């Protein structure tokens, strides 16, 4: 049994933390990481996290030497260098930039969906700004349309950094926007996700019910 030599500060609801959990699972590194569940929001940060990352954001990964890595992209890159299997982030060549750009599109869905969550859940109702909310939702739709093309052209066959990020983005939409009904508009993406969401790494990291 490998010893736990790192600590991941995370929340089970955070899709950015979920990407890290999925990569840890896919690369067999989950047993090496202690999971530290933190309660936080932008208006009630966690002292435990701030002590390690002044931005107060999760995920944050504390290493054995006391250094802390953040954000999720940095942590994913680090962890992908700590296993001996096939890299999930291509090390070089055109494919590296292609897959990282696709992962970045998925992160853009997350950024927009989380901004919508904060606006609708944290911000007082009389201060909600519909124009801004609609702009975030439009961004999500544009990216999903592109991901539909990617699914249709076989670009999501390999479960690497791009596919992990897309799967976690779709999982977060189902979690926080269950009414969105994206599957009807993006059937190929839906069919890809039906399979991807059944991987052990995805099932084991599902957000709370
Ligand atoms: C959420 O509850 O939606 C959430 C929690 C942590 C980070 C981001 C989102």
How would you describe this protein?
53% of the residues lie in helices and 7% in strands. With 209 residues, the protein is α+β, with helices and mostly antiparallel strands. It has two domains: 75 residues, 3-Layer(aba) Sandwich (Glutaredoxin); 110 residues, Glutathione S-transferase Yfyf (Class Pi), Chain A, domain 2. The protein has a four-stranded mixed sheet with strand order 2-1-3-4. The longest helix has 29 residues. The site of benzoic acid has 6 residues, from helix 4.
Which key features would you list for this structure?
four-stranded mixed sheet, globular, Glutathione S-transferase Yfyf (Class Pi), Chain A, domain 2, 209 residues, binds benzoic acid, Glutaredoxin, 2 domains, single chain
H and E order: EHEHEEHHHHHHH
The proportion of residues in beta strands is: 5-15%
The CATH architecture of the largest domain can be named as: Up-down Bundle
Main sheet strand line-up: 2-1-3-4
Structural class: alpha+beta
Low-confidence spans: none
Helix content: 40-55%
- DSSP, total strands: 4
Name the bound molecules: benzoic acid
Shape: globular
What top-tier CATH class of the largest domain fits best?
Mainly Alpha
Residue-averaged pLDDT, rounded? 97
- CA radius of gyration: 17 Å
Report the sheet with the most strands, covering strand number, pairing sense and barrel closure: 4 strands, mixed
Number of helices: 9
Q: What is the first-to-last residue Cα distance? A: 30 Å
**CATH topology group of the largest domain:** Glutathione S-transferase Yfyf (Class Pi), Chain A, domain 2
Tally of separate domains: 2
């Amino acid at each position: 049994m490998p010893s736990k030599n790192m600590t991941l500060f995370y929340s089970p609801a955070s899709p950015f933390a979920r990407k890290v959990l999925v990569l840890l699972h896919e690369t067999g590194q989950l047993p090496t990481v202690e999971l530290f569940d933190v309660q936080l929001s932008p208006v009630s940060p966690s002292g435990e996290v701030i002590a390690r990352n002044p931005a107060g954001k999760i995920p944050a990964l504390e290493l054995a030497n006391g250094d802390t890595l953040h954000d999720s992209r940095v942590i994913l890159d680090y962890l992908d260098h700590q296993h001996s299997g096939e890299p999930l982030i291509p090390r070089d060549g055109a494919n590296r930039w292609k897959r990282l750009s696709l992962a970045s599109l998925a992160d853009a869905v997350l950024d927009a969906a989380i901004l919508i969550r904060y606006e609708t859940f944290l911000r007082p109702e009389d201060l909600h700004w519909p124009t801004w909310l609609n702009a975030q939702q439009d961004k999500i739709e544009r990216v999903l349309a592109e991901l539909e093309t990617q699914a249709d052209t076989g670009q999501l066959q390999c479960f690497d950094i791009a596919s992990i990020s897309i799967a976690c983005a779709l999982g977060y939409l189902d979690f926080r926007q269950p009414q969105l009904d994206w599957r009807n508009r993006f059937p190929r993406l839906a069919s890809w996700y039906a399979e991807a969401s059944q991987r052990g790494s995805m099932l084991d990291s599902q957000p709370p019910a």
